[in-house]
Amino acid sequence: MPRLLKGKEPADAMMKSIRRDVAALKARGIAPALGIIRVGDRADDIAYEKSAAKRCEAAGVAIRLYRLPVDAAQAALLDVIHGVNADAGIHGVLLFRPLPRQFDDAATRAALLPAKDIDGITDGSLAGVFTNTMVGFPPCTAIACVELLDHYGIDIAGKRIVVLGRSLVIGRPVAMLLMHRNATITICHTKTIDLPSVVKEADIVVVAIGKQESIGHECFREAQVVIDVGIHVKDDGKLCGDVKFAEVAPLVEAITPSPGGVGALTSAVLIRHVLNAARRHVPASHLTSV
């Protein structure tokens, strides 16, 4: 059996550190707060909202919810975004996407201040990821992939890593984060010729296709590490990833379960981003003691 790279252990360790630092900030009069903006009632958005709220409560981070109906107008959403931008008591903002079709996604993302964008959706935040200047914050799931590898002592520097998926949500940001750690990156997508042969060359494979159990044993070999970012609900109600776990797990050295892998760590990363956004309100001369 392969080594299972579960997210609970690193998430618990991260939350322990976060609770300590949140208490230190509160002692200085700064109470970290997360604003969540949700349009409509998508089941996956609601599930993530509940997970984030639970993590916030456990860490002592305040949470403010902004919920709009699925048929809300663009102007109403922009009003909410401008409001959280101006509210000094909200340090980080999570905006659920994709938005309903009537919204201009680009205009909506552009309205959010990168400094409060804790999930890397704005152009400013993404520019920071690509230039390694971290103007805002990288996408939480991309960071969770890297954190998971670090926690389990899997070297990144010098490794050949294939990222399956080229979206700005996961694929390209995680590729940049890994490249900043001196990995050699190949990004694969729907137009990649002979995908299995390319993936088999990798030491580490990050699968972020976004399609339920779409990648099988034909793409893998022994001694590989597989990070499956996908999370889907099957017809029987059970959760699964992008990888056909039962086929792939016996072949590889290590693999994330789904659920229980990357997703278990993502919400902890989200709370840490809120904490770090709040820390920016502390004078630089005081940071060493926070």
CATH architecture of the largest domain: 3-Layer(aba) Sandwich
CATH class category label of the largest domain: Alpha Beta
Q: In total, how many beta strands?
A: 11
- How are the strands of the largest sheet arranged? 1-11-8-7-5-6
Q: Unreliable runs, pLDDT <50, ≥5 residues?
A: none
Key terms:
single chain, Rossmann fold, six-stranded parallel sheet, three-stranded parallel sheet
What this model shows, in words?
- α2 (43-59) crosses α10 (262-279), α6 crosses α7 (171-180) and α6 crosses α10 (262-279).
- α2 links the parallel β2 (33-39) and β3.
- This protein is α/β, with parallel strands linked by helices and 290 residues long.
- It has two domains: 28-130, Leucine Dehydrogenase, chain A, domain 1 (Rossmann fold); 140-264, NAD(P)-binding Rossmann-like Domain (Rossmann fold, 3-Layer(aba) Sandwich).
- The model has no long low-confidence stretch (mean pLDDT 93).
- The longest helix has 20 residues, at 8-27.
- A six-stranded parallel sheet has the order 1-11-8-7-5-6.
- It is built from ten helices and eleven strands.
Summarize the structure.
The protein is an alpha/beta fold.
SSE topology sketch:
Elements: E1 3-4, H1 8-27, E2 33-39, H2 43-59, E3 62-68, H3 74-86, E4 92-95, H4 105-111, H5 123-131, H6 140-151, E5 160-164, H7 171-180, E6 184-188, H8 195-199, E7 204-207, E8 225-228, E9 232-233, E10 239-240, H9 245-248, E11 254-255, H10 262-279
Parallel strand pairs: 1-11, 2-3, 2-4, 5-6, 5-7, 7-8, 8-11
Antiparallel strand pairs: 9-10
Helix pairs in contact: 1-10, 2-10, 6-7, 6-10
